[in-house]
Structure formats: C-alpha cells, structure tokens
# Entry
Amino acid sequence: MITGGAGFIGSHLLDLLISRGANVCVFDNLSNRSSENIKHWTENNAFKFMCCDLVSENNIVKAVEDCDVVFHLAANPEVRVGSTSPEIHYQQNVVATFNLLEAIRKAGNVKDFVFTSSSTVYGEPSKIPTPEDYAPLEPISTYSATKLACEALITAYAYTYGFKGVILRLANIVGPRSKHGVIYDFIQRLNKNPKELEILGDGTQTKSYLYITDCIEAMLLGLEKAQKRVEVFNLGSEDQINVKTIAQIVAEEMGLKNVKFKLTGGVDGGRGWKGDVKNMLLDVSRLKSLGWKPRLNSEEAVRQAAHDLVKEQKSN
# Structure
C-alpha cells in the first residue's frame, strides 16, 4: 500500500512497483487534484485505489489488511504553512500517522513500514554533511517537528508490534509531476511575469536536490537492505545548489532572458520564511555503502526537473 500514492513521489513509486510485478493499493484523498498521476493504471488488475483520508480513520484497517508492505508518503508537504496554521501539519502528519499505525496494529499482517521523513528533522546541524546519527535533533519548523514525532511513533510501534520500520530522511526531491517546491513556484511566477522573479530570502539558501528516479531507487534499496528493527537512511545528492542559481536555471529552461531577480531579503538572517533551513547537505554514505549512488548531482537534478515541468506545462 502507498499512502499519498497519487502524489508526486508516490505516483513514481507506484509506477516502478507495478512494473516490477507488485500488486499495489493506493490510499489517497486527492487533495492535490493528483488523479492524473495514476489514471494510466486504472485498468490494470495489479492496481487498486481507495479515495480516503487518514485523518478520518475510515476504511484504513480494510486498506491494510491485505498488505505486507506499507509505504507511508501521505503528508502536507508545504513547510511554510506551519508558521500560520500549525494544526494542519499536526493533523495531516502526526494524527494521520498514528491512525495508520493503529490500523496496522489491528490488522496484524504488515511486515514492513517505510516512511518518508525529512532532512529538516536535523534542524540546523553543526555538522555538514549531516549523518543519520547526528544529535541532538532540534527541528525549527512545525513541519519538521511533526516529521520527527512521526519517526518516534513509528519506532515505538515497530518495536512493540513486531514489524520492520524504514525511515527515509529526504532532501529536496524534484522531477515531473511535482506541484510544490522552489522550481514549481518559480515557473508559476515567471508565467505571470516573465520579466521579474521574486525570490524569498537573500538568495544564498543552499541545499541538496535529488532527482525523483534516484529517490525511488534509494527508497526500494533501503527497504531491501534494512536489517534492524528500525533503520534510518538519508536520501539526497552529494552536493548543493543555492536558490539564486536555481532561479537562473529555471529562467533558462523557460527560454527567458534578462529576467530581473528581486530578492526579498527574507527573515531571520536571510531565510525564505520562518523555519526555513538555510544550509542542508545530507551524508548519504550509508546508502552508498549498500550500492546506491545518485546519477544526477543537485544542479543536474534541478535542470532536468525544470525541463520536465516546463514541458508538462506546455502539454497541458
């Protein structure tokens, strides 16, 4: 089962799983109007869809009772909403995860639970690149706090009720079908005004970006190679790119010239918003030791994703 399986990462995971011969149930509330991402599987016997919400508890036990592996991707991905509406992250991350874990406890048949957490659980670490065993974990946004809370719940349930937990701390994942994040936002803004682009912050925010196919391969390898009751893996590229360079790449991929970049200056020392981590680079040596390596670096991933999204926009 894939919760959030109609979304950006979930639908790409669905594609690969079915292509490998798995039977997959997608559990999604379609809040992001993402049914387009999965419509090509609707006539396939290996595919099942349930339009439900994890917050409501309805039908969750029924959804998991025939599943041996659960990929839990459903969440609200917009970090910025937490500064104005923290209850959204609490409900859609913490409550949703608790309800899912309770359904798994009652069903009693799930063997593996894979959770997409976030690099933001590290807060602003003093060690860059940041390894999985870095401490203390001090999240600076309600989004990252709820992701860390979910990790704790999953760990406790895995040890108490006997399934394997795989926690994946993701960098910024980019690629086709994405409907949020800096690349998508820049494209939308430049569509409205191709001469000027507002950039939140001071433009120096520097982070790791991973292309979607590299992400999906890492997710499945982490599940395959995990040995302990609970395993934690970082997923990201091995380098970084700053937000101003991303703006330049997006403008190039849209065929725009002489775009004026307007920096807002940001908050709290140049952040794009309250809770924005300015510098992020994960240590991915654990997954690399198991045989995985990203094919694209951060700049290549951003450029390919921008190309994909511009092409998608033209075809719609």
Q: What stands out?
A: The chain has a mean pLDDT of 94. Residues 86-107 form the longest helix (22 residues). The chain is about 35% helix and 15% strand. The two ends are 29 Å apart (CA to CA).
